[in-house]
TrEMBL record:
Catalytic reaction(s) noted: [thioredoxin]-dithiol + NADP(+) = [thioredoxin]-disulfide + NADPH + H(+)
Phylogenetic classification of the source organism: Bacteria, Bacillati, Actinomycetota, Actinomycetes, Micromonosporales
GO MF annotation terms: thioredoxin-disulfide reductase (NADPH) activity
Name of the protein in its database record: Thioredoxin reductase
SUPFAM superfamilies named in the record: FAD/NAD(P)-binding domain
Domain FAD/NAD(P)-binding span(s) in chain numbering: 16-291
InterPro entries to which the protein is assigned, alphabetical: FAD/NAD-bd_sf, FAD/NAD-binding_dom, Ferredoxin-NADP_redctase_2
Domain of life, per lineage: Bacteria
Pfam family, one: Pyr_redox_2
Chain ranges passing through the membrane: 12-34
Record key words, sorted: Flavoprotein, Membrane, Oxidoreductase, Transmembrane, Transmembrane helix
Length: 319
């Protein structure tokens, strides 16, 4: 903010080498690499992480069992230590500035200019329309067996199936328990799938589900439409992953047949100067995977900026 000679408040354009949109593991990892490379960066974060309902995260080397918000707090602190800026806000639009860089619009009106963009805006989980499912999400209704399977091992588990790939998903969950029920609608299983489930001792319940049974703030079972209750301690549900890629598609980035923005090995999109990393382009990325993708994108971004710095220096050096 500044004031013009008349005393009116005016917005002052903030200029950065890289604007990183999304302050999760991918965004903060990239910010750390770039700020250590002495780049001026800003991480713009709306404060709505996908794993907010989870009390702990697992499978992250040296951080196993750490609360997700604590990882983000530590990450922000590390980025700031090297001069990186963290801006709490929502990006409403992106556009070319006509000079090879980008104009970033924020909901509060603050204008930002960046030479390059890294989008790490994640995805959202769409769950089946089943009463009680959302309320138990990341507690005893889970989606990632590699993230949470060990914590519910050897308990009475269930898989809400009926979607493409859910039988295979149930076979993976079977690694953590001998007591597993696969719930699905009538007529959805092929003979081969039924044989494979039965061969590994996975129970099959075919019928419409009415609701989850909750008592003392814990999942107790699954109630079917006929009133029968199947006792379960935890459920695994393969959600539908929906990328938060509106900003990327708005810039014209290419997408694949499933609607996911395509990137190269470093996270580079089809639009020059724009990178993407983490769950916004990789639905299967865990926290540690997203952090690695953010680091790889940051190294590629810095190399691209160096190439531009060289071209600019040569132009200025020539008579």
């Amino acid at each position: 903010m500044a004031r013009d000679p008349s005393g009116s408040t005016v917005m002052v354009m903030s200029q950065y080498d890289v604007a990183i949109i999304g302050g999760g593991a991918a965004g903060l990892s990239a910010a750390l690499v770039l700020s250590r490379a002495r780049r001026r960066i800003a991480v713009i974060d709306a404060g709505k992480p996908r794993n907010a309902p989870a009390t702990h995260m697992y499978g992250y080397l040296s951080r196993d069992g750490l609360p997700p918000r604590e990882l983000l707090r530590q990450g922000r602190e590390e980025v700031r230590r090297y001069g990186g800026e963290i801006l709490d806000g929502t990006v409403t639009g992106l556009a070319s500035d006509g000079r090879g860089g980008f104009a970033v619009s924020l909901a509060d009106g603050q204008p930002i200019s960046a030479r390059r963009l890294l989008i790490t805006s994640g995805l959202r989980d769409e769950l089946p329309d089943l009463p009680g499912l959302n309320e138990r999400w990341a507690r005893d209704v889970l989606h990632c067996p590699y993230c949470h399977g060990h914590e519910v091992r050897d308990r009475r588990l269930g898989v809400i199936g009926g979607t493409a790939g859910s039988v295979r998903y149930a076979q993976i969950v079977r690694q953590w328990t001998d007591d597993l029920i696969y719930f699905t609608g009538p007529g959805t299983l092929t003979p081969v799938e039924r044989t494979e489930l039965t061969a590994r001792g996975i129970g099959i319940v075919e019928g419409a589900i009415d609701r989850l049974v909750i008592a003392d703030d814990q999942l107790r079972g699954v109630q079917l439409h006929d009133g029968c209750v199947v006792a379960r301690d935890a459920l695994f549900v393969p959600p539908r992953f929906v990328p938060n890629n509106r900003l990327l598609t708005g810039l014209g980035c290419d997408v694949d047949g499933g609607g996911w923005v395509t990137v190269d090995a470093t996270g580079g999109t089809s639009v020059a100067g724009v990178w993407a990393a983490g769950n916004v382009v990789d639905p299967r990325a865990q926290v540690i995977t997203a952090a690695g993708a953010g680091s790889a994108a940051a190294i590629a971004l810095n190399a691209d900026l160096v190439d531009e710095d060289v071209r600019t220096a040569v132009q200025r050096h020539q008579p």
